[in-house]
Amino acid sequence: MHPDLTERILQHLETTDKADTLDLAALFAEDHQKIVGSLKSIQAHGELVTAETVTHKSLGLTDEGRSVVEHGSHEALVYDLVPPEGIAQAALMTAGGANAKVGFSKAMSHGWILVDKSVTPPLVRRKVDTITDVVRSQLQQVALGKGDQLPAKEVADFKKRKLLQETTTKSFVLARGPEFATTLTKLETDLTVEMLANGLWDQLKFKAYNFDALGAPPTRGHLHPLLKVRTEFRQIFLEMGFSEMPTNNYVESSFWNFDALYQPQQHPARDAHDTFFVNHPAKSHKFPQDYLERVKKVHSVGGYGSKGYGYDWKLEEAQKNLLRTHTTAVSARMLYKLANQEGGFKAAKYFSIDKVFRNETLDATHLAEFHQVEGVIADVGLTLGDLIGTLYEFFRKLGITQLEFKPAYNPYTEPSMEIFCYHPGLAKWIEDLHLIEYGIIDISV
Amino acid sequence: MPTIGVKRDLLFEALGKTYTDDEFQDLCFAFGLELDEVTTEKQMLTKEQGDVAVAANACEEIIYRIDIPANRYDLLCLEGLVTGLLVFQGKLKPPKFQFVEPAKRQVLKIDPSTAQIRPYAVAAVLRNVTFTQASYNSFIDLQDKLHQNICRKRTLVAIGTHDLDTLQGPFSYEALAPNQIKFKPLNQTKEMTGSELMDFYSTHAQLKQYLPIIRESPVYPVIYDANRVVLSLPPIINGDHSKISLKTKNVFIECTATDRTKAKVVLDTIVCLFSEHCAQKFTVEPCDVVQPDGSVISYPELEVREERISVKRANAYIGIDEPAEKLADMLTRMYLEAKVDGDSLVVKIPPTRHDVIHACDIYEDVAIAYGYNNIKKSLPAFMQIAKQFPLNKLTEQLREQVAQAGFTEALTFTLCSRDDIGRKLNKNIDALPAVHIGNPKTLEFQVVRTTLLPGLLKTLVANRKMPLPLKLFEISDVVVADESTEVGARNERRVVHGLLDRVMQLLSVPWKSASGTKGYYLQATEDPSYFPGRCANVMYDGVVIGKIGVLHPTVLQAFELTTPCSAVEFTIEPFV
Fold this sequence. Notes:
Chain A is α+β, with helices and mostly antiparallel strands. Chain A is 36% helix and 21% strand. Chain A contains 17 helices and 15 strands.
């Protein structure tokens, strides 16, 4: 920034002990702001100069004040407008213009004019023959820079009349600093390959870092926070030896979503206000027939040790398509496959994390579609202790070890439970998993 | 999850012990209930009606609001809850319900006309009952709770309770034309016909919801006594004549229904829970219900079923190792009286436990009595090498890479409006193989998306204020109708973003050169969603797998976007 100017200032200071920037501005015929700017540049390079802040108060003319200097004070002008024979007051006012009123009252108080009320209309006459326009001459002094010679009373008065204004100017008094030099050395910003190569880094001066500023954010992509959780849970399941189920089918039949899971056909959850029913395509038609017959039987009259629900099971209900309300529908399909695969049933562990749909009105804590985490273990001789143990390990991998299991009711799992875990961050118990898949193997397969 | 409100002090009095809120919470927890809220009637009224003035006269007594599992009808009132808890704590033996035969049974005859509207009916009598204000309120509340739950808002079963001493049997259950029925409904002063009743109650806050159950029927159900006094017009309202008061001593209970099984469960529940107020506790007087075909069935059934379970299996199922006597004791505490018989247990399932329909229900109760948190944690013994679902594995890998390339992942709704995939993309909704929802609650959920584009465009609009460029991606499923599948639709995993070449590189799919046969390439095409001349099909192995291009300004306008937008969407399923 204005290298010439900075150098000139420095050179000036070499021979002068103290210099006020205002004086420098006059000396170099430059705008004071430029001088200040150069000063800042110098200061950025180190302690070459010292700068002491100084405030100057100066008097200056306002526009009105300038007009007075040029044309004369308002009262003098009014005086001049009064002819020897006098003039009607109204006419005087009109002739005097905007400042006539002020001028008139001042002229009256100075005793330059009088109002003759002996005639009608009253006339304004000169009282004295000549006047001296003191105001004008005093303001002229200010214009010449001799404002400080005016008595304070006059100054206050002129300020009140808005003829004068006081301006404050801040300037700096400069002197040589500890690192004084007559030239500015350029500060380097970064180390370069060349500097390393030729060893010049040792001799060069480097600009100071501003450690209070944040770094520039790098361009980056982002993974969705919910999906990051999904990835983590998926990882945990895989670590625990669970295989992933194919859940890429949002549209499901009521048969797999409800009937195969022993949700009776009149159950409230099958109501239109909890489930999204699909009207195109409206119905499924392919079911494993003998399995369907078994399901029908257990619903209506019982079987496999169950009393059943005691109602007429309808195929049309089971055919209705919907958007799955839980991924348990997929689990049911998997278990069916597992039981009927070639080579017979083999123990297995499955999991899935995928979208499910509920026909709810949206609010701060409810969505119509959300992710469900599901785990299934199928084997002979599994115990409730195994289920609780597995859940405990799952949560342990999330860093949660304080768990309490509470009995609960769920139409298609028996026993069922809810898990409450202690969240160390929130310092309270929160209800976690709602439903646990358990015990289906015995009945359906 | 039904919730009941019980006055805390009455509850503790009946339980014979005072608890702190936390202690009671723990007891509920162990039993399978949840203490949802500690409040007062005043607070509840203020919450419900928002009117402090109305609640000003209400009680300041503490009320416990307790969550009851949906299948435990026997816990839906203070009486049932107390009995359940006392039995659970071993302080009370499970009550045995007994019939007391009267000199002459009450008879309820079902007329064939009822088959048109509400075919089934059951009845019972509770003798020498003493009501207090508290037990009277509890009686009414229980009926209300049952109506809301198992009775499915009175559509399946409707309950009517009457002062037997004001009536004369035999009773007759008929279905008549609305104008043939005339009586004074409960708490009214005027007599009304069936049709007048419909009009009268059409503005009643509670009852108007039940009117549609029978309103359009040519005949309405009605129960008369021998003097043609109307007991009730189910499921709407009882008659004023037979209303129950604090002075009532003998109660006649009738349930009419469209589901016979549920009617039986409801009747059993009411008599079991309230027979503790009879002079002879836990006794019920049976009634004869004459069926349309002339056969007579005695109600209530109060069936005590016996199930035999193996001690070994019960222990193995849960993962504990308790001797038979201990298991029997635990079951008895769960209201399922059990006796040891060799290596089995003979379990009596009382009429209050209609929720027990399989051996595993019994095992669950053993586990609850043992305490879920007391069961030793174990892990399944078998070893399995886990497999990832290949499509998901590919998705996870791609997600990582696309994010590293500087794109931000979005997760958008699967459901959207018809316009979102149709008009706004300059496409005709009827020509698309979309899955339509039959009962959407809002416009936003009319169809299942066939493309990921609208979701991402809406995300862009919501983030207009963010600095450009905005680079979004999503790898997720769309659904297309497909008759060849079992359900008529299938999911397709798609990727949308702006980085075709890099993804193809990751998938190791070479750019198809003029001479080669394998690989991907672009083929210029016109598509109404894209700017003319700026759209191409993404081809792989000669098949169209997606589209790439600059979106058409009208599409941008439809989604209220003001900056140009380019996108590529294609399916990754061929690459799994």
